[in-house]
Specification:
The complex is a heterodimer of chains A (395) and B (295).
Chain A: H1 2-23, E1 31-39, H2 46-65, E2 70-78, H3 83-95, E3 100-103, H4 107-120, E4 123-126, E5 142-144, H5 151-162, E6 168-173, H6 178-193, E7 197-203, H7 212-219, E8 227-230, H8 236-246, E9 252-255, H9 262-265, E10 274-278, H10 291-301, H11 309-328, H12 333-341, E11 346-348, E12 351-353, E13 366-372, E14 375-382
Parallel strand pairs in A: 1-2, 1-3, 3-4, 4-5, 6-7, 6-8, 8-9, 9-10
Antiparallel strand pairs in A: 10-13, 11-12, 13-14
Helix pairs in contact in A: 1-2, 2-10, 2-11, 3-4, 5-6, 11-12
Chain B: H1 2-32, H2 41-55, H3 60-83, H4 91-112, E1 118-119, E2 129-132, E3 135-138, H5 139-161, H6 163-173, H7 175-180, H8 185-211, E4 213-214, H9 220-233, H10 239-258, H11 267-281
Antiparallel strand pairs in B: 1-4, 2-3
Helix pairs in contact in B: 1-5, 1-6, 1-8, 1-9, 1-10, 2-3, 2-8, 3-8, 5-6, 5-8, 6-8, 9-10
């Protein structure tokens, strides 16, 4: 029962991390940044918010243990994946005088909370949100730690044409969610712009469980497509790729999401020619400056395969926040917002960020990663050529 | 033609899994008179039992067996802890309790184990496929179909040929009279929950073998499907949920195949509308039978 112990320890560690940060005494000269964490620890959105919570907690523990002249003080509550609860918690935290709010990745939560934080002038972060609407929402008071929805599919389309010399593609999308519906459209747009042809498309429902018909449809195409672009995520992606490969379809499979997750890694041998884009750089495990991060993630999850994009993005974003406080010498929300709005090509240890020109989902660098026999091969590093590309037309 | 055969196999394998879950719901409904909304969470119990068993290095057949037994035990425990103290309460109270149990289990899994899916790596054999006459049959698809049929046959024999099965059928028909004839209520109810749990465990192993992971909320979708199957087919008999499951499998596959992509979002609403239609026009389901069990 080693894993059970580790998992229990994981929960305790998350709680302990947050508690410790609250307990760390600030020295007289230290600034104190009061951070409200309104993330979902339970129900549907917890899938994204829990890793964010872990990444932020590790970073804050490191920051508070160091000598940065800033200490982070955290108040944390579970939104239970309910936007009504997000509103209540946000109001409560505003009353408690927080300087910065970290909020859920749920689109409904973001829309619900945006009038509140705009009115309060409260700098808010949704570390995992790639919502294109974010650029025009809440007067710029809500910012993300990750690039917009069109980042993954545009980079993948360019990689498909330029590196794999792909000429044909099949598109697989879902009407169940804007991200799952629109990202294949972004791929199609870029792929066709570069001279590629879409030879078929099919849709699916989230949690479909069975993809036999789609697989048969792909097999019935006059020619096997060079690329299959799918927006399936966990748990649908592993099912889809298994059924596809079992049927003998050898096309390169591109996934729109950051699928550098344990369940995808666990597919193991025999699953090759699968590509995705991620902000997670190569070699985190061997990077000396990441030693504590790697150790903590392994301790919390009991497994190194959880060193994925979600946790890392939130971790890195926290250091962006530290940089903002250190450089401005302020913990005031308005001052920090202005700092972010002038960030251009700022190099952080694991990514280079641009928030300038109204980008609330920043322009960041992506890595095209190939899944081969349960291992990740880094194939190419990509970044948008202009600011305009990072401000997608909303589908 | 290959499309049609593929369609039938897909529909039946999906329907078979839904049927196993739906029978579990119907068994409990028959003796207790309420739809158990926590039944689906036994899939997650199976999954986590398998995850920990794999982590302990146990061989795959033992892992699967433990997963199934865990669901059976979990189901009995659920009855003992949550439903037995409320046995004399109304079906509405029991149903609301089942909601509470389901929510408590979600939160327990999410806090104690984590919200993220845990991988369950299966032997590569399960990911294979074979081709007959141009039609590709997935190994897992075929196993699902065969397992579902086998389970249904075994369950039918159990209910018809054993004393406990007879007692369960009698209890489903008229619980009060059955008790007057000396059958112990606790034994019948526990057996119903155990068998329902075992069926959920088998369905869980099949679902997990396909998806390769377990997460705290994995039960939600299959549970809704199973409830729909139980209501459409008729929860008052064994044949009802089986028929409901197969009908649902066929409907889902038909809609998946025929609806244009933009309209696919209406697949589940159409099916749920049918559920409402059945509840209004034919609440006893396709197979008819008793509307409310006598407890």
């Amino acid at each position: 029962m080693t894993i059970w112990t580790r998992s229990k320890a994981a929960t305790l560690a998350i709680g302990a991390a947050v508690s410790l940060t609250m307990a760390v005494p600030a020295q007289a000269e230290d600034k104190v940044l009061k951070v409200g964490m309104a993330l979902a620890q339970t129900e549907f959105i917890a899938l994204w918010d829990q890793p964010a919570s872990v990444g932020i907690s590790i970073a804050i523990e490191e920051i508070n243990a160091g000598d940065h002249g800033v200490k982070f003080e955290v108040v944390s509550q579970d939104t239970r994946s309910e936007s009504a609860q997000s509103i209540l918690i946000t109001r409560e935290m505003i009353d408690q005088g927080i300087d910065v709010l970290v909020m859920s990745a749920g689109n409904a939560d973001i829309y619900a909370v945006s009038p509140l934080v705009q009115q309060a002038g409260l700098l808010t972060f949704s570390p995992e949100s790639s919502l294109p609407d974010l650029n025009g929402l809440a007067g710029g008071w809500i910012k993300s730690g990750t690039g917009p929805d069109n980042s993954y599919p545009t980079h993948l389309a360019r990689f498909a044409v330029e590196d794999l010399k792909a000429k044909t593609a099949y598109i697989h999308w879902s009407p169940d969610d804007p991200f799952l519906e629109n990202t294949p459209k972004y791929f199609r747009r870029e792929f066709e712009k570069l001279g590629g042809t879409i030879i078929g498309d099919g849709s699916y429902s989230v949690f479909q469980q069975e993809f036999g018909n789609t697989v048969q449809e792909i097999k019935n195409l006059p020619e096997e497509p060079d690329v299959i672009f799918t927006s399936t995520f966990e748990p649908d992606f592993p099912i889809f790729i298994k059924q596809l490969r079992a049927a003998g379809v050898k096309s390169a499979v591109f996934d729109t999401g950051a699928i550098d997750t344990p369940t995808v890694l666990a597919l193991g041998e025999g699953y090759n020619n699968v590509f995705f884009a991620s902000e997670r750089p190569e070699g985190i495990e061997n990077n000396p400056s990441m030693a504590n991060y790697v150790e903590q993630v392994e301790k919390i999850y009991g497994d190194a395969s959880f060193l994925d994009t979600f946790t890392l993005t939130a971790y890195t974003f926290t250091y962006n926040l530290l940089a903002a406080v250190k450089e401005t010498g302020s913990t005031d929300s308005k001052v920090l917002k202005e700092w972010f709005e002038n960030v251009e090509n700022r190099e952080m240890p694991f990514n280079t960020y641009t928030y300038r020109d109204g980008l609330n989902t920043p322009l960041t660098t992506y890595h095209i990663i190939e899944l081969a026999d349960g291992k990740f091969n880094y194939r190419r590093t990509m970044r948008f050529n202009s600011m305009d590309e990072a401000q997608p037309a909303i589908e | 033609m290959t499309d049609i055969i593929q369609f039938v196999v897909t529909a039946l394998s999906l329907g078979g899994i839904y049927a196993m879950l739906a029978i579990g719901i119907a068994l409990v409904y028959s003796v207790m008179g309420f739809l158990n909304f926590a039944h689906g969470d036994l899939l997650a119990v199976t999954g986590y039992a398998m995850y920990f068993a794999l982590a302990a290095g146990l061989p795959w057949p033992v892992v699967a067996a433990l997963g199934i037994v865990a669901a059976g035990a979990g189901s009995v425990l659920m009855e003992r802890v949550a439903f037995r103290p409320l046995r004399s309460a109304s079906p509405d109270t029991l149903m609301l309790t089942s909601f509470a149990v389901a929510t408590a289990l979600h939160v327990l899994f999410q806090i104690a184990i984590g919200a993220r899916p845990k991988p369950i790596t299966l032997p590569s054999f399960f990911s294979g496929a074979f081709e007959i006459g141009g039609v590709v049959f997935g190994t897992m698809q075929t196993i699902s179909l065969v397992t579902a049929v086998t389970c249904l046959v075994v369950l039918t024999l159990f209910l018809k040929r054993t004393m406990l099965g007879l007692a369960m059928r009698a209890a489903a028909s008229d619980f009060s009279t059955t008790r007057l004839m000396g059958i112990r209520a606790n034994r019948v109810i526990s057996a119903s929950f155990f068998i329902a749990g075992i069926l959920a465990g088998i369905a869980g192993v099949l679902i997990i073998a396909q998806r390769g992971s377990v997460d705290p909320l994995m039960a939600l979708n299959p549970l809704i499907k199973a409830l729909v199957a139980a209501v459409i087919g008729g929860a008052g008999s064994l044949a009802g949920p089986v028929l409901g499951g197969l009908v649902l499998g066929v409907l889902e596959t038909v809609f998946q195949k025929l609806l244009p992509g933009e309209a696919l979002v209406f697949r589940d609403p159409i099916i749920l509308s049918m559920l409402v239609g059945f509840l209004i026009l034919r609440p006893t389901g396709i197979t008819g039978g008793r509307q409310e069990p006598v407890r």
